[in-house]
Amino acid sequence: MHLEKTPNQYLQWRYANGDDREVFLKQTRILSDKDREQMDKMIDLGDGKGGRQLEALVGRQKWKKTFQYEVKWRNWLPKNNSQVSRETLSEWGFDKLVQEFDDHEASREGLGYRELQPSVISKHFLDLGLDPEIANHNEIGSLSGGQKVKVVIAGAMWNNPHLLVLDEPTNFLDRDSLGGLAVAIRDFKGGVILISHNEEFVGALCSEQWLVNDGRVAHRGTAAVSLDRFEDSSRPGSGLTSGVASTAASSAMSSAVNSGTEDNGDLKFKAKKKRKKTKKEIKEQEVRRRLRHIEWLNSPKGTPHPVDTDDEA
Fold it and tell me: N or C: which end of the chain has fewer CB within 10 A?
């Protein structure tokens, strides 16, 4: 499906109406005969107006820690619409209608400032490392495995989701493409969940890791995100931003400062042996470094990465 389209045409088709068509084609979103029968059932709200049939959900607003939805009743004027909680709609068997409305709202919020124009889509593919010439003129069926992965990721990120879940995103990608994907994830303002066997990629981006093996789940935390593992990808033509190069340079500078290889021959005293940090001090240091890194991620592109030193306060 869609193999005859170019990546640019595919994205135009997918978001032509504002919503994500791929989502609505899922079996979990399509109304079954049982769902349609449920919509024909009479519902009595106990307000003395008798039973009525649900026609559609037409609005949503925050209510306590969840949402309540505006229900339009079949053959009733809009002034008779009702506000019904999410839990009540679920009890009535309208989970798919609720999910469909939530999907629509998420797409509307994410696409509020994006133009579905070929030039804008080309820029979107370029940001993810896919050459615009390929995105505009080559059919998806003729692309390599790595290029198809980029098309999938571009499609998932077009509507600016709050949370991105990537299952084995590194498959078929070369090192340059891995670096480009790492930068895209780094600059992404929402949350990211990665499912991957690539320890280098996960270790470079994820400050928290959960290892699943032999029916057991183990938690592993890392001291800091280390994008400098992809410094090879900063070569000309790799598509990486200067932020990665500055990160690698800062990492190299930090290594030089703390390497202990300086020539101390002119010194007339022995270097004082450093006191071993306690677990509490190490944890506090990790927190400070992570906060500095988060602040750097939110800073303008080109801002030098803060240097982490062992003797910081």
Answer: C
